Amino acid sequence: xxxxxxxxxTPMRYDPELGDCVPTDGRVTKGLPQIFxxxxxxxxxxxxxxxxxxxxxxxxxxxxxxxTAHLKGYALLDRCLQ
Length: 82
Prior knowledge:
Layout: E1 2-9, E2 12-15, E3 20-23, E4 29-37, H1 44-56, H2 61-81
Antiparallel strand pairs: 1-4, 2-3
Helix pairs in contact: 1-2
């Protein structure tokens, strides 16, 4: 099974002086759809796809949510066939 969740994405960058990631001045993306397996692991390819579609093609959030929902359906079908 997979769950579709909407998260807020804060742009980060690595700061070598702190040895950690810190927020950038970039815009926070609210409600970004992400797919997680029932054990809590993200489906990395689907999650990256949602981020890429939103940023690269400047699609609106409704389109990205719809596309990600279809990927979730594929994940369910794929698990049923295994």
